[in-house]
Amino acid sequence: MTQVDNMATIGPVTSSDPGPIFREPPQNVEAEQALLGAILVNNEAAYRVTSFLKAEHFYEPVHGRIYDSCLILIERGQIATPLTLKATFDRDPALVEGDGARYLAQLASAATTIINAEDYGRHIYDLALSRQLIQIGEDMVNTAYEVSLDQPASAQIEEAESQLFTLAVAGDAQRGFIPFSSAVTAAINTAEAAYQRDAKLTGLSTGFTDLDDILGGLHRSDLVIIAGRPAMGKTSLGTNIAFNAAKSFRAEVDQDGISRVVDGAGVAFFSLEMSAEQLALRLLSEESNIPSEKIRRGNISSDDFVQVVRASQALEQLPLFIDDTAALSIAALTTRARRLKRTNDIGLIVVDYLQLLRPARQRRDDNRVLEVSEITQGLKALAKQLDVPVIALSQLSRAVEQREDKRPHLADLRESGAIEQDADVVMFIYREEYYHERSKPPEDKPEFLEWRQRLDEIQGIAEIIIGKHRNGPTGKVELLFDGRVTKFANLAKTGRLPSEAPF
Questions:
Q1: What is the per-residue pLDDT for 190?
Q2: What is the Rg, in whole angstroms, of the alpha carbon atoms belonging to the chain?
């Protein structure tokens, strides 16, 4: 059977058969030519597009090389014209073959006006994003077809989300220089907002008066580390601050119909140690002032139960979001935080705790210091990207326990170099009561009375030591701590009562 006969057995091709469909990637070569022509005629046109448009955004590779060459000459203080570019493109095989000198002249003749240069540039950039979107989609499909134990479906989803978010904010992230006058205006607006607040804070309130006084609140794009030994109350302080921020959340609609947050914040809480249920139980205990152990066991009176129900109804309304995924990677955490920021406009992120986070990829050399450095850099980058404060709880090394004075220092941070370097604020929690109770002498000894007197003096008092404050003073503040309901509160001082009685 001949080849013709063999093809005939498949069946005749009718005129209604559309055949394979070919779709060209989104592109506009004419717009690229017009923009390049505008730059060649008037180099000022380049300044209107360089903040967002790169050579790789051009569909035609030759156009990308011409654009790059123009920018190189302009950055050197020279003029980019068909004549000055001729020597460069005489060495470019693609342009030499196509009579590059003539093509450059044709581009100059097809120039758009400098007024339209930015519009053409935005159009070219938008088409480039569309092509990248197509590429991400194709990669997603191909990766999904490849079954791999090293990359489960959940990891593929997180990778795709990360790529999509990066693509979405690509133009915003490369904003370049801004006039100093704009920066001053933003600073004045921040100061005005602080002046109008009762607490006179420039940042988000922690809910603790003395702590806000020394910090000025939690500032956007700051990485705040809260560190302490086990049982000092790290998680309690983190949940208290998150709860206070969510509880005081208030938004108003301005004259343009845009909703703006005027107080508090929506909160993303990443709990790598405790489950969402355990965390919710803590918050119920704090709000109802009933020990969580009693609530868990159901050992409460009918009046207590009414309090718990009221507390749960209040908590349900809060803009507080909990992710209790164990062994979360910094890449996955970043992806989920970005997603929540886009959907719910959160204003605070809390991570409990730093040492339980995993790096994006496991290192073969098992260098924990480098892993923690990658994690803290990722958290700081996330704070800047989303323009929100990020609080990360951290463990301290056992070196604290070997000293007579167990107040922690910066050097006590595990992998302290990386954490100390990337953090804007480092706070330590120290409760002398915890250590003093463990040094109890026998009651028949003479020192017992002295021990008891000292215990009465320090009972319920927690020191918050600010060991590093990049934009303000360091120091120490005292808070009340109620271990029954794992709750911190303002300490009563002369002329001031505590905001809430903890005992």
A1: 54
A2: 31
